[in-house]
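Internal ticket #5521
Category: modeling
Description: The requester needs a full-assembly model to guide mutagenesis choices. All entity lines are attached below as received. Residue total reported by intake: 288.
Assigned to: D.W.
Attached entities:
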Amino acid sequence: MVSTRYNIIRLQVDRPGQIVRFQHKIPSYLKRCTGFVAKHVRGVQTDFYMPEIGWVSASFNSLKEEAIVAPISAQPFYEPEEPHGFQTLDVNLKPGQLVVGVYVDSMKSNFFPYMVSLYLRCVPTARIQPSKEPEPATSQARMIPREIDSKVNQEHCEAFTQDDDNLDEHDYNHDQLCSII
Amino acid sequence: MFDHLIHIHQQFKQRETGIELQRFRSVTTRNPQKGYDLDAYNEYLLLTNSHALPVGTRIISDTNSLEIVEGHASLEGIEEFSGLIRIELPQETQQYPVIEFIQIVKE
């Protein structure tokens, strides 16, 4: 069972138009981030849905991967119009590196200091890379002489099988049958 | 003396990002226009003359944002922007500088 961990980055906005920078180190045992949600958590009191009070951008692996640009909305506390579900993220993490980002406030009026949180959903297992397709049989086939007698054929097949034991699964040609020669 | 180019090359080497092109790019601001938009998709613009910008200038991009404060005049660091970039001069300014970037196009 994969254990999921949530990293929370809190950003305090104290004045209109403020640019808030952040950097955060994800624990090195976490190998992959699979989702995020960025939401207003405190401060803006509104009776109607505000689709954007600011936006956040973040890059992973010490600026190597720019993965998040998302608007932050504010909703009425008692009647939220949109659920705060996690959005999909698929970033393999290098150990000990930084998540770096910036939040930019874009509220034009009625400003009150507020707080935004960025939640990162991460797991301690890396993404499984899809395995290579096996090579076509013709490219790996080996020619075995037809004019050998049955004893030599048997020895040859044993030697051939031993050789094949050293091959990777992907290199092994399952269609090569000694017994039919 | 801090060398911008050495710093840039070290930065991109650390990020394992190859550089296809490196050159200067400038934006000339003119009275009375206060806002300027630049495209820098799949490339980076590194601001080299933040000390020449009026206090209150804002540069907002998809990956980084900056507001010039008084302390910037004494800083040697360079700021990096990418994606869609918006430059906003303060409304009350009488200063219209040439804004200079080093443009880095990724491989």
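Resolution: model delivered.
Comment from assignee: The radius of gyration of chain B is 14 Å.
Ticket closed.
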